[in-house]
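Q: My labmate handed me this sequence with no annotations at all. I'd like to see what the chain might look like in three dimensions before we decide whether it's worth expressing. Could you predict it?
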Amino acid sequence: MMKRGYNGTYHQMSPKHLHRYVNEFEGRHNVRPLDTIDQMKLVARQGSGKKLLYDDLISTTTALLLAEDRTSKRRRRSDCI
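A: Here is what I predict for the chain of 81 residues:
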């Protein structure tokens, strides 16, 4: 299931957030026997009162790497023109 998610959904998994991916797939695996309504109720109940701030999610190092990646993509596009 984890391999399918990697290949089909995420395409890249950061080691920093690997525990989050594992938790997500563990949860998906554990709710398989429930019907859809019960699954949604469970997700809503577990997510109530929780929030993940963007600043907590993204470190300055990651933000710098993303900025560099965007810059290199712009350079590649301008080389094609």
